[in-house]
Specification:
By secondary structure, the protein is an alpha+beta fold. The chain has helices spanning 2-39, 47-76, 83-95, 108-120, 149-153, 185-197, 199-271, 273-301, 304-309, 311-319, 338-359, 394-406, 431-434; strands at 124-131, 134-141, 155-165, 168-178, 326-329, 364-371, 374-381, 410-415, 421-428. It folds into four domains: 2-78, no CATH class; 85-97 and 104-197, GAF domain (Beta-Lactamase, 2-Layer Sandwich), CATH 3.30.450.40; 212-301; 310-434, Histidine kinase-like ATPase, C-terminal domain (Heat Shock Protein 90, 2-Layer Sandwich). A five-stranded mixed sheet has the order 5-6-7-9-8, with helices on one face. Strands 2-1-4-3 form a four-stranded antiparallel sheet. Strand 8 and strand 9 (421-428) form a beta hairpin. Mean pLDDT is 76; it is low at 97-105 and 388-392.
Length: 435
């Protein structure tokens, strides 16, 4: 490695010196001698032409020397750059990251990996980002090194340097030391210097990665909410059609029959009073049947006990008539917003009905508790588990999930074969209620 650095310096010095001398000679011959022939002054150098030649040399010498150094790096050293060139190039890339009019953002982590690999002569280089408690590879050089196991395994040592900005660990630089070119102090210092300068690069890369991840999460959440709202609308439409059918086939038929019989009694009142009184007496059971039908319909929409007493007493009332023993414990949570109580009530009833129909359980418990501004519902059974009835429970689970989603809650189902199922729903309580 030291021999390579010495050869690199000697080659660069020789090429730059010879190239510079040749360029000066060419400019002098072309401007002073050639220009002197044109103006007819060949006996002695023309002062004006000499000044022009000197100005051209002064303006073009440094760009020429930089170009000659690049030629040595690209052609003679096979792209291997000196540590000074690496640091200079990386600093320039930070100061001028590219054309702001370009639609695609400049990938600074990839530039950093490339500078790192070419400057140290490593077999490969990687830039890693600290994302929470995990690390993610943000860039590699060569770009396909992750799929080249031979290149990854064919190194004698992996050097790692942490990247820190304002005492916050943002990531790390990793390079693989090739077998035939072990690292020396210069390569170690170059790696440390690049790690010291890479803080802003990794900070920007991490912000971009976090924004991309949040955008993806929001897009997925938006799709889920759209599907959930569509299912909820479809369920409401189906419920409206069911209610219309029940009203038509049930309460409406009772009321129509009642109207017909009352008109008959009115007609018979003058001709056959005894018959009229008998018809009127027969309408009492008809009125009771119509009231019972309307009461059943109202319970199917929104139970009176839920409106008057809250979700705990309402669940005890509606679940008290189930054949299986159902234990309801509300831990004195008190009253909640109407939409939250409705969501918890219907979710509990649906979960209990699913357990009764499909699980073969011998007992069911419903537990309601409130803590830290969140109300928690747990419905647990000791049945055969969820998997035996996964297909038949699909619609019921969708209804429960939609109701909890509608009040910004979280829904989960836990089940193990032969060990029953547990439905868990958590719903945030509005601040004005929680206080």
């Amino acid at each position: 490695m030291r021999l390579w650095r010495w050869a690199h310096v000697r080659r660069t010095s020789i090429v730059v010196t010879l190239g510079s001398l040749l360029a000066v000679a060419v400019v002098y011959v072309a401007v002073v001698l050639g220009g002197g022939v044109l103006v007819g002054s060949t006996d002695s150098p023309n002062v004006a032409l000499s000044v022009i030649a000197t100005a051209l040399v002064a303006l073009g010498l440094e760009p020429l020397r930089s170009a000659l150094r690049s030629v040595v790096t690209e052609r003679l050293d096979h792209g291997r750059r000196s540590p000074y060139d690496v640091l200079s190039g990386f600093t320039e890339s930070l100061a001028d990251p590219g054309d702001s009019s370009q639609s695609e953002p400049v990938d600074l982590p990839t530039r950093l990996a490339r500078h790192l690999a070419t400057g140290t002569g490593a077999a490969w280089a990687q830039v890693w980002l600290a994302m929470g408690d995990a690390y993610e590879c943000a860039a590699s050089w060569p770009p396909d090194i992750e799929h080249d196991r031979a290149a990854i395994d064919g190194v004698t040592r992996v050097h790692v340097r942490d990247v820190v900005l304002d005492e916050e660990k943002l990531g790390a630089l990793r390079v693989g030391e090739p077998e035939n070119q072990p690292f020396g102090p210069i390569e170690e210092r170059l790696l440390a210097d690049l790690a010291a300068q890479a803080g802003m690069v990794l900070h920007r890369a991490r912000l971009r990665a976090e924004l991309a991840r949040r955008a993806t999460d929001l897009a997925v959440r938006a799709d889920e909410l759209q599907v959930s709202r569509r299912r909820l609308v479809d369920a409401h439409d189906a419920e409206r059609r069911r209610l219309e059918r029940d009203v038509h086939d049930g309460a409406q038929q009772h009321l129509v029959a009642l109207v017909v019989n009352l008109r008959l009694a009115q007609t018979l009142a003058g001709k056959a009073p005894d018959r009229s009184r008998a018809v009127l007496a027969e309408q009492v059971p008809a009125v009771d049947a119509a009231l019972a039908t309307l009461a059943d319909l109202s319970r199917g929409l929104y139970p009176r006990s839920l409106v008057e007493q809250g979700v705990g007493p309402a669940l005890r009332t509606v679940l008290g008539g189930i054949a299986l023993p159902v234990h309801v414990d509300d831990h004195g949570i008190g009253r909640l917003p109407a939409e939250v109580e409705a969501a918890l009530y219907f979710c509990s009833v649906e979960a209990v009905q699913n357990a009764v129909k499909h699980s073969g359980a011998s007992s069911i418990s419903v537990d309601l508790s409130a803590e830290d501004g969140v109300v928690r519902l747990v419905v647990r059974d000791d049945g055969s588990g969820f998997r035996q009835a996964a297909e038949s429970l699909g619609h019921g689970l969708g209804n429960m999930r939609d109701r909890i989603d509608a009040v910004h809650g979280q829904f989960a189902l836990h089940s193990h074969q032969g060990h029953g199922a547990t439905v868990v729903a958590t719903v945030p309580i509005p601040l004005e209620v929680a206080s």
